[in-house]
Write a structure and sequence with these properties.
This protein is an alpha/beta fold. 28% of the residues lie in helices and 24% in strands. The chain contains 8 helices and 11 strands.
């Protein structure tokens, strides 16, 4: 699918590097934009990317395959591949740079589009605003960085409000906040303003400085015992370290 909006800025060159058993995606710099285990290409290698799956804590495991996941920013396609292959979900990925899509298909084992997978070459802000998508996404995963990885490309209260409109009533958004020029506190307040403080949860930062924030379309109280039981199920079914998440994952408003 063609992009819905042409961009005036030059898109960066895409390349990759291999180190041991891991392949890394780069956008013309040394900054890592994603990774893949060469021997397990459909697993999620990076810790913060695993945490982007924390929305699973708020969904009945038997319902997961019936839901729709959307990624804003393809990266190395780790989330897209995992949602489609491991979770067997309908999955839509939005990516502005056609070179990233080509790289993921050539070097990172991203399958071709099919009944469960659609990669849309478009601007994430336009997709988030477009009524066509509103109310259709159960799990929205936002990871939008330029080649310098200095700050999120889209990080306004209006953008997060548009993201909320994408979600179904019990849908959930996870966002990666990272960057030398970004302010986690300011970003968190923008998300809280769009979703409500009682709907927002956050992880502690990873060693690399990535902080994943989760926001529910509709705030709801969840007991820790329920989350703990679901975390064990997530680890058993999909081999994600969900029990460890609960030690570093708390609601913004206790």
């Amino acid at each position: 699918m063609a992009r819905t909006k042409k961009t005036d800025r030059e898109l960066p060159e895409v390349n990759f590097s291999d180190y041991g058993d891991v392949r890394y995606l780069h956008l013309g710099t040394e900054w890592v934009q994603g990774s893949m285990l060469l021997d397990a290409p459909f697993d999620i290698e990076l810790e913060y990317v695993q945490r982007m799956m924390a929305w699973l804590l708020f969904v009945e495991p038997t319902e997961v395959a019936k839901r729709h996941a959307m990624q804003l920013g393809l990266g190395a396609a780790s989330l897209t591949k995992f949602c489609r292959r491991k979770l067997r979900m309908k999955t839509t990925a939005i990516e502005l740079n056609p070179q990233v899509v080509a790289a993921c298909r050539l070097w990172f084992k991203l399958p071709p589009d099919d009944a469960r997978l659609q990669v849309v070459l478009s601007d994430a802000a336009e997709v988030a605003r477009h009524p066509h998508w509103h109310g259709t996404v159960d799990a929205l995963q936002v990871d939008l960085y330029d080649h310098e990885a200095a700050a999120p490309v889209l990080d306004s209260e209006d953008f997060y409000a548009d993201c909320r409109r994408l979600l179904t009533e019990d849908g959930c958004m996870t966002v990666n906040l990272f960057g030398r020029s970004s302010s986690y506190e300011r970003s968190l307040e923008k998300i809280a303003a769009a979703f409500g403080r009682d709907a927002v949860w956050a992880f502690k930062p990873t060693r690399e400085g990535n902080t994943v924030v989760l926001a529910l379309r509709t705030a709801r109280a969840v007991k820790r015992a329920e989350l703990a039981a679901r975390a064990e199920t997530i680890q058993t079914l999909w081999h994600l370290p969900a029990p460890k998440w609960l030690r570093v994952f708390k609601p913004l408003q206790p």
